[in-house]
Amino acid sequence: MVLELLMNPKKAEREPWELFFIGIVYSSVAIFLSLYIFKQYVGIVMVFLTTLACTYLIQGTLNREEKKDLFINHELALLKEHGKALSYFMFLFLGFVVSFSLWYIIMPQSFSSQVFAIQEETIRCINSVGVEGCLSAPTESFVKIFLNNAKVLFFVLVFAFFYGAGSVFILAWNATVVATAIGLFVRNSLSSAAASFGWSSLSNYFSSYSLGLLRYLTHGGLEILAYFIVALAGGIISVAVARHSFNSQSFRKVLWDSVDLIALSFGALFLAAIIEVFITPVLFG
After folding, report:
1. Rounded to an integer, what distance in angstroms lies between the CA atom of residue 55 and that of residue 39?
2. Sorting pLDDT into bands at 50, 70 and 90, what band is 277?
3. SS3 string of the chain?
4. What is the value of pTM for the model shown?
5. What band does 86 get if pLDDT is binned at 50, 70 and 90?
6. What is d(CA 221, CA 174) in angstroms, rounded to the nearest whole number?
7. Do residues 168 and 110 make contact, with C-beta atoms less than 8 angstroms apart?
8. In terms of Cα–Cα distance, which of 212, 158, 157 is closest to 189?
9. What is the tens place of the pLDDT at every residue in 130-169?
10. What is the rounded CA–CA span in Å between residue 65 and residue 58?
11. DSSP assignment, residue 166?
């Protein structure tokens, strides 16, 4: 209850950047609670506890956004209003990624491998699929990546519709996977300088971490934005189902506005796949 009351939708709209630090707090507390209470299942329990801390904020946001659909008739004005919620969702996610990745790097390797064991296994599976699939042609890679992300988008929509704020579970899980990938990238970048200390190593650390964030968030930021957009759409439809009759004009208006959001999310996902396949390899090798 204490963590939930740190932030509410009204305050989040006024100061969206505060959600970055809220995300760090939520995820850090989740790591240590799951580590000392559910040690055998820490990798998944920390995602659940992070999601649980966000439930009040996310559900309150879905209720507010559904009301906006009813009272705002101009499409651009409505998208601008939804954009306020999306902005603090993105700050929240960035807080998750920074927190999880820093804890992954700061912890001793044996310790972090225990905490993030499931995430590391997920990354190995993703990499092995890429190798086994022999995706030499960029077009093949693009299709595979887009279809895989579209599958995640579908599940986020389903979770948002049936569980409301529960859709954040998938997004928090993605944050841990991205954070683990960043942590592995940083550790591999610093492996040659592991035995040395001083300002040069400190400089390498910060440059490697910054490069890791940029590498995975260049396209990953758009992917997560797409997931948040569709989570917002699914959650709004879920609230509308509970509040209105299927035959009412209010429900139809909310439904069509949500369809626009879903279409927008597919557009963002398509652009993210283009960046991941054709731009990220050029920038980061």
Report:
1. 23
2. confident
3. CCCHHHCCHHHHHHCCCHHHHHHHHHHHHHHHHHHHHCHHHHHHHHHHHHHHHHHHHHHHHHHHHHHHHHHCCCHHHHHHHHHHHHHHHHHHHHHHHHHHHHHHHHCCHHHHHHHCHHHHHHHHHHHHHHHHHCCCCHHHHHHHHHHHHHHHHHHHHHHHHHHHHHHHHHHHHHHHHHHHHHHHHHHHHHHHHCCCCCHHHHHHHHHHHHHHHHHHHHHHHHHHHHHHHHHHHHHHHHHHHHHCCCCCHHHHHHHHHHHHHHHHHHHHHHHHHHHHHHHHHHHHC
4. 0.86
5. very high
6. 11
7. no
8. 212
9. 444 444 467 888 888 899 999 999 999 999 988 877 788 9
10. 10
11. G
Which whole number is the average pLDDT over 56-81?
84
Residue with tokens 């009351």: 5
**Distance of alpha carbon 175 from alpha carbon 159, whole angstroms:** 17
99, two tokens: 């927190």
Among residues 12, 18, 42, the alpha carbon closest in space to that of 30 is found at 42
As given in the structure block, the two tokens for residue 283 are: 């920038």
Give the model's pLDDT for residue 233.
Answer: 92
Q: How far apart are the two ends of the chain, measured CA to CA in Å?
A: 45
